[in-house]
Amino acid sequence: MTTRRQHTLLSTLILMISLLLPAITARAQDASPEAGESETRVNVIQKIVESSDGNVEILIDDDLTEKILTPPSSHKKASSASNASRALKPGLNKMAGYRIQVFSDGRNQASLESRARARGNAITAKFPKYRGQVYTFSSAPNWYTRVGNFRSASEASEALVELRRSFPSFADEMRVVKCQIVVMK
Question: Which of 23, 109, 137, 177 has its CA 20 to 30 A from that of 68?
């Protein structure tokens, strides 16, 4: 422990003891032997004060001291970060993330599905790294094609720039969307 932490902890303990001491002393006096009883009971507080000569050493584990002195907001951040890393299990994991929407249309219903799938096929033909990461689905009356499983918006934005450069004919339709993604650990 650092000297500053020791000082802060010691000050807190002294304050707590000084606030509790009158109540403890009163209880000890109330519990003192009645007249006629033997005086074998010892006033515990008096014994501590006499034997310690005013110096009390309290040993506290460093982990506990860290928890006591760390503001509550940092506990939440640390625990949420550790929960995020613990949440991934071996195999497929679903989590919040980002994809690039490369197709979204609801006009001309007869050809929507084939156009959505063709857009995904064009992307995997040029970028094999997205094979298995092209998702074509319908949410009536529209069809959508989304690409990738990006954990952060910055990753998705970098990929969006790359895809727009490679497919200028439909670059205006492309955008990053927040959705459930699949991550393999």
Answer: 23
From the CB of residue 181, how many other CB atoms can be counted at a distance below 10 Å? 20
Q: What is the distance, to the nearest Å, from the Cα of residue 148 to the centroid of all Cα atoms in its chain?
A: 24
148, containing H or E segment? strand 142-150
Q: What is the pLDDT of residues 112-154, one digit of tens each?
A: 899 999 999 999 999 999 999 999 999 888 899 999 999 999 9
Query: Minimal CA–CA distance to 182: which of 95, 89, 88, 85?
Result: 95
For domain 92-184, the CATH architecture is 2-Layer Sandwich (3.30)
pTM attached to this predicted model: 0.52
What pLDDT, on a 0 to 100 scale, did the predictor assign at position 184? 78
Nearest to 28 by CA among 50, 44, 12: 44
The domain locations on the chain are 3-69, 92-184
> 108 in helix, strand or coil?
coil
Within 10 angstroms of residue 170's Cβ, the number of other Cβ atoms is 13
Going by the DSSP 8-state scheme, the letter that residue 34 receives in this structure is P
